[in-house]
Amino acid sequence: MNEPQPAAPTPRWRRRAEARPEEILDAALEEFSARGFDAARMEDIAKRAGLSKAAIYLYFPSKVALLEALIEARVGPLARGVQTLSASGMSDPLTALRMMATMAAHRLGEPGLLAVPRLVIGISGRFPEIAKYYREQVVEKARRALESLIAAAMAKGQIRRADKNAIVRAFIGPLFFEAMWTHVLGGETALNDPQKLIEQQFDVLLAGLEPRA
Amino acid sequence: MNEPQPAAPTPRWRRRAEARPEEILDAALEEFSARGFDAARMEDIAKRAGLSKAAIYLYFPSKVALLEALIEARVGPLARGVQTLSASGMSDPLTALRMMATMAAHRLGEPGLLAVPRLVIGISGRFPEIAKYYREQVVEKARRALESLIAAAMAKGQIRRADKNAIVRAFIGPLFFEAMWTHVLGGETALNDPQKLIEQQFDVLLAGLEPRA
Amino acid sequence: MNEPQPAAPTPRWRRRAEARPEEILDAALEEFSARGFDAARMEDIAKRAGLSKAAIYLYFPSKVALLEALIEARVGPLARGVQTLSASGMSDPLTALRMMATMAAHRLGEPGLLAVPRLVIGISGRFPEIAKYYREQVVEKARRALESLIAAAMAKGQIRRADKNAIVRAFIGPLFFEAMWTHVLGGETALNDPQKLIEQQFDVLLAGLEPRA
Amino acid sequence: MNEPQPAAPTPRWRRRAEARPEEILDAALEEFSARGFDAARMEDIAKRAGLSKAAIYLYFPSKVALLEALIEARVGPLARGVQTLSASGMSDPLTALRMMATMAAHRLGEPGLLAVPRLVIGISGRFPEIAKYYREQVVEKARRALESLIAAAMAKGQIRRADKNAIVRAFIGPLFFEAMWTHVLGGETALNDPQKLIEQQFDVLLAGLEPRA
DNA sequence: TATGAATGAGTCTTCATTCAT
DNA sequence: AATGAATGAAGACTCATTCAT
Q1: What integer is the mean pLDDT of C127-147?
Q2: Rounded to whole angstroms, how far apart are CA atoms C126 and D40?
Q3: Contact at 8 Å (CB) between B120 and B171?
Q4: Which nucleotide is closest to the Cα of D54 by its C1'?
Q5: Does strand E come within 7 Å of the CB of B126?
Q6: Contact of B150 with B164, CB cutoff 8 Å
């Protein structure tokens, strides 16, 4: 008796249980975003995740731990995405850059796009470690990835030589600013037509980077 | 005898009392920045301002009111500064823009430069009204001021015609990003030589805006 | 085997939890009575109820809510009692009145008899709504019940016709005054022999109401 | 120059100053009545009396002292009034009683009539001493005065012999109840026609006290 | 006499966290 | 795995009272 459950069909409730941490993180992100880390209440997170307050502690030992897990969970995919993208674009870096910008522009419409960065900014005073972690794992990686593309583009003569660092900033900065403006400060602008937005932006940037005659 | 009391002596304690609100706001900004609005304790703010907890309530009726007063107090000068600057630069807009960029770059080194914006970002979820206020009073105004300068530069043929909105973003975005990177996320980069930083940046931007032959 | 669990065991702690609100109300009444609503401390109420301060808030959302719940809880039974009593005495109203007076006289000895009315009087300035509620639910109802009995007694010729309102006052007033005198102002008088007290009182009253020849 | 102000007319400000304590007591009574002793704020009392918070402490050393002074100030006249009244009515006690009832009935309309008693009731739990003082100085004295009158009326054969204590209660009780009902609990009744009210009441009472044939 | 400024002590209320079941 | 109940610790806010002027 008590034979091994053949091929372990993973009863539904178990799958649920396994999904729990993820659900909790989602709920936490929403609450943290809406209220800020300190004002967010564990009880609300629990309710949103469909659990009791106490149940969260079965998965995360504390509120801070929940925050850390949340950041970590959101950081991985992002970082990987950026790297894959840049790696795969090495053959034609300029096109790759343009595609990335286009993708970014399209995603600018998504609410919640900046949820994590905004959260990180909000807590950066209280948890510098987390801010540092985020910088290293996301911003720095993205920066490096972009730098590689730019370096490649220069090497191929697609753009003229200039300070790579400045170019990275010129590339990310405006997008970041636009996103902040829209999603954090509540402004409503050029986003109606993201495609146009990014073209204009890229125009200006690329015009400045055209290989000189 | 009984000469006119020269310029009203104003007993020391009174001057003190009049200076209080400002001292409190300073203390509040420091605490809010360090801990975030919710985690900051009124008692710490009071201590930092050299008062008792209760005394703060003689000047501000609540923690939120303190926050609002703080934002408001910091917003006025900033907005005014930007407008003055842009107004006075209308005769030679391109030079004005370059000067503004230079000034900004130099101030990038100041810690606390982003204290208010960071704070605003942190509370934007909980107090959208404040975020909106900041956007309208600071960011929007700055944006418009820059736009005027840019329009003037175009009109004078100093730079080629292009989407003004995009140019504004291209101007502000990189600086904002750099500041965020440095002061909020704890990165340490090009700031060693702000002069160089801004030159590179401006180079890239202006190259793209050179009037076409 | 496995007989039906007789009458659902309900673990002790659960029964405890269910009894909590009542225990808290008792404790609250005692503290409110002893100190007055404003001077009473939630912590003392909690201690008296055998809970932590915070636990009270699991059952009542605020101090005022606790007060309201308390009044409401004490009002129901009282009102019902009065009405039952008067209804059941309709066949011989005079006797019923005498019985009610006797009962009242006997209860005059109980300390805490006036706890709720005194509390209501004390807060009537600050919470007129509660005072009104108490008047309508208790005093008014009692008044009406007595009036019915008196009307019935008149109809039956047990007492002479006179202003019913005046008779009600003549009936309640002295008892109320005596109770106030004793329990609130700390006087100590005729209460030693409540039976005698009420007889004298009733004598005077009834003599005035004897049907005229 | 600077001659002696002839006959010291007591400069106006001084008279004001002398009137201060009384003004403060008035203000205190109003605030205490409206909010209850504990909820009343010294600042509000001061404002109502036209002084600064701190100035009150020039006249009364503490909030409790203010309360005590208030009670004491209101008690004196009342007690004296009652005694004068009863003393002067000894020649025709029954008429005196009727007059007193009439006066009481007329004053029933005054809001604030019960302000002090209500206040005393409200604080009786916290300051039994004050309650006792009020009982002894006011209620007890009134009681005794009434008892004298009643005794005199009996001696003169104006009313039949009965328990004096009961008669006093029968006399005061209904009036007290009516006043409480109206001014404290917010009911609105027979007060429209106080003359009628008291006649009915007296009718019932006196009918029971008519000398038996 | 009078007051604006200041504060210490206290109270309500909240919330992350624990625990018995 | 899950939760209803409970609490300790903490923080915003209030207010009687004091003091320098």
Answers
A1: 92
A2: 10
A3: no
A4: E3
A5: no
A6: yes
Contacts of A38 in chain B (CB under 8 A): 36-39
SS3 B1: coil
Residues 179-208 of C with CB under 7 A from strand E: none
Cβ of B168 less than 7 A from strand F: no
Q: What are phi and psi of C175, to 5 degrees?
A: -65, -45
Q: What is the DSSP string of B178-195?
A: HHIIIIIT----GGG-HH
Query: What predicted TM-score, i.e. pTM, was given to this entire model?
Result: 0.88
Fill in the amino acid letter for C126: R
Give the D window 85-114 contacts with C, CB below 8 Å: none
The CATH topology of domain B75-209 is Tetracycline Repressor; domain 2 (1.10.357)
Asked if D36 and C36 count as a contact pair (C-beta separation under 8 A), the reply is: yes
- What whole-number distance in Å separates Cα of residue B174 and Cα of residue B189? 14
Query: CB neighbours of D129 closer than 8 A, spacing ≥ 6?
Result: none
CA atom of B121 to C1′ atom of E8, Å: 36
d(CA A133, CA A144): 16
For strand E, is any atom closer than 7 Å to the CB of A57?
yes
Give the DSSP per-residue string, D153-189: HHHTTSS----HHHHHHHHHHHHHHHHIIIIIS----
Judge whether C49 and C111 are in contact, CB under 8 Å.
Answer: no
The residues, ordered by sequence, that sit 6+ positions from A92 with a Cβ below 8 Å of its Cβ are: none
Question: Minimum mean pLDDT among A182-186, C170-174, C187-191, D186-190: which range?
Answer: C187-191
Place of tokens 């000469």: B3
Q: Which nucleotide is nearest to A63 (CA to C1')?
A: E16
> For chain B, what are the domain ranges?
18-61, 75-209
D171, D209 Cβ separation under 8 angstroms: no
Determine if strand E comes within 7 Å of the CB of D191: no
- Just give the CATH number of C18-61: 1.10.10.60
Q: Does A200 touch chain B (CB under 8 A)?
A: yes
Q: Where are the beta strands (DSSP E) in D3-124?
A: none
pLDDT digits (tens, 9 = 90+) for B7-49: 444 444 444 556 789 999 999 999 999 999 999 999 999 999 9
pLDDT higher than threshold 50 for residue C14: no
As a rounded value in angstroms, the CA-to-C1' distance for D27 and E7 is: 26
B73 vs D195: CA distance, rounded Å: 66
Task: Of D36, D207, D66, A180, give the one whose Cα is nearest residue B135.
Answer: A180
Residues 115-154 of D with CB under 8 A from C: 118, 120-126, 128, 131-132, 134-135, 139-140
Burial of C2 (0-12, 13-18, 19+ CB in 10 A): exposed
**Which residues in chain D touch residue C35, judged by CB atoms under 8 angstroms apart?**
125-126
Residue with CA nearest to F11's C1' atom: B41
What pLDDT is attached to residue A18? 62
Q: Comparing C-alpha atoms, which of A23, A49, A20, A45 is closest to residue A33? A: A45
**Any B CB within 8 A of A165 CB:** yes
Nearest to A134 by CA among D148, C35, B187: B187
- Which residue, among D193, D212, D198, has the nearest Cα to D97 in the 3D structure? D198
Instruction: Give counts: helices (H), strands (E), chain B.
Output: 10, 0
CA distance C29 to C70: 7
Distance CA C45, CA C37 (A): 11
> What are the two backbone dihedrals, phi and then psi, of residue A10, each rounded to the nearest 5 degrees?
50, 85
Q: What integer pLDDT is reported at residue D17 of this predicted model? A: 52
Asked whether the beta carbons of D204 and D138 are under 8 A apart, the reply is no
- Answer whether residue C4 shows pLDDT above 60: no
Place of tokens 């509540």: A186
**Which one-letter amino acid corresponds to residue A145?**
A
What span, in angstroms and rounded, lies between the C-alpha atoms of A40 and A45? 8
